[in-house]
Amino acid sequence: MTLLSVENLHVTFDTEAGVVEAVRGVSFALGRERLGIVGESGSGKTQTGRAVLRLIRPPGRIRADRMEFDGQDLGAAGEREMRALRGRRIAMVMQDPKYSLNPVMRVGHQLTEGLRQRDGLSRQDARAKAVEALAAVQIRDPARVMEAWPHELSGGMGQRVMIAMMLIPNPDLLIADEPTSALDVTVQAEVLSILDKLVRTRGMGLIFISHDLRLVARFCDRVLVMFKGRIVEELPAHNLMQAQHPYTRGLLDCLPRIGGPRTPLPVLDRTADWAR
Amino acid sequence: MALIEIDNLVVTFAARNREVQAVRNVSLAVEARESFGLVGESGSGKSTILRAICGLAPISGGTIRIAGQPAATRRGAGFSRRVQMVFQDPYASLHPRHTIDRTLSEPLAIHGLPDADARVVRALTDVGLPPAFRFRFPHQLSGGQRQRVAIARALMLEPDILLLDEPTSALDASVQAETLNLLNRLRAERGLTFLMVSHDLAVIDHMCDRILVMQHGAAVEELPREALAKAQMKTDYARSLFAASADRLLGA
Fold first, then answer.
1. Reported ipTM exceeds the 0.95 cut
2. Residue B79 contacts by C-beta under 8 Å, 6 or more apart in sequence?
3. Nearest-CA residue of chain A relative to B199?
4. B26, B29, B32, B12: which is closest to B65 by C-alpha?
5. With b meaning 16 or more CB within 10 Å and e meaning fewer, what string describes B75-111?
6. Closest to A202 (Cα-Cα) out of A175, A177, A174, A176
7. Do B251 and A238 touch (CB under 8 A)?
């Protein structure tokens, strides 16, 4: 079943230096599965994710032949309808917990705000639910974290708080933008298994945006590789290591490996034909 | 005698009414021209050790010696000539309102070194940036270019020790490869000694000869590079860290 379908998506920014095309004609369909979008910074993967939620501010513009979520046309939806979708049905975990948590609000207050406003829960119920959500993302001492300010949390804790916050309304689609890039490998594995469990048990769709190809290969079902705003290759994740496109190959080969040779790491050749 | 000697280092931060021991009795020794890696999760105290060496973290026990000399409480000009640090986030570690030229020539001015102009141009060329970049501001550079500037700045005083605090974790994989290659080239050319912190075992393995695994502020296990590649670690924690990174290679 298709949850989200996007056809010929363009995201452009009118700047003083001319029109910048961040996303140029991206098409994909997503069911209740884990779709990975990989590419370097500037390849348009984040803008693709944001465009689905129509979170692109002017001067940025979104243009698409079709953008449909669960039968609803996202291109034609009004701001009120989008607000009803955002968070509740489609949630997004942003890249950097340092910038996406409100620095002057205690964590508990941020977690319960939606529950109190949107779902009209009592203070006590909201608090219980928030503590439960924090425990679900493996935060050891939820009561202390509820009272903490964002600056008192480490990157990994902040990111888990963000994930907890996004999962409270039980969305159908989660767009996770580099959710684990700020985390240690051990914590990264935990967060991934949390996300994995949610996709399996809740039947949630997941768009997983990352620059880490090996991580995506291991974690996702299908992968889109983006370069300069275009999808250059689409393949099942378990075949990622056999990718053919020179860009995908370049991204794979430049990673150091434990026990690998000490010779200089291969770097991307940006002057090749495919990079034009 | 090792170039960097740390004996029973303790770093304690006092926050409101509780004390946090960020580093607990850690000892290590780094030989000249060696590359030594510190790995562990966030909060394990690895960056704090680098900051303590530079005098940026309060030392409450133990000693730090550089080439046999105990580090003075106020790190003097001589110290900065020998030891320099490259920070994790090139978006935060460069002054946003100073041109690259100003950033790079400031250490020269402080230390009264001549030929600032030629040195800045050479420093930029050494890290693979066009000399014209000296007139740019940090926001006009990409993350990788900024980290190159941060490396150039650390090398302005021609130190023999570089403290590298997660120098590539803010960068793309492709840019990380370029930066690691640059660091290795500079180390070979100038005979530098690296003390490098990373949470990525593969990066540490690629860059370092010996590795110290840390957890909760304490040293867990020291390993030579060969033992890491063969997964010959003695402690469970080091093994779990290895397993978490090694399974990223599944299918590779």
1. no
2. B55, B66, B71, B72
3. A184
4. B29
5. beeebbebbbbbbbebeebbeeeebbbebbbebbeee
6. A174
7. yes
* Mean pLDDT value of segment B175-187: 92
Distance, CA of B214 to CA of B43 (rounded, Å): 10
Distance, CA of B193 to CA of B208 (rounded, Å): 10
Q: What gap in Å lies between CA A229 and CA B174, rounded to an integer?
A: 17
Residue among A267, A104, A95, A239 at smallest CA distance from B185: A267
Write out chain B residues lying below 8 Å of A265, CB-based.
Answer: 177, 180-181, 206
Residues from chain A that touch B252, judged by Cβ atoms under 8 A, are 214, 241, 252, 257
> Chain A contact for B31, CB < 8 A?
no
Query: Residue B96: what residue type?
Result: P
Quote the distance between the C-alpha of residue B59 and its chain's center.
19
Under an 8 A CB cutoff, do A255 and B184 touch? no
Q: Which two tokens stand for residue A273?
A: 């034909």
| Predicted TM-score of the model (pTM) | 0.82
**pLDDT tens digits, one per residue of B93-152:** 999 999 999 999 999 999 999 999 999 999 999 998 999 999 999 988 888 899 999 999
Q: Locate B194 and state its tokens.
A: 């690296």
Residue B235 pLDDT: 93
B188 at interface of A, judged by CB pairs closer than 8 A: no
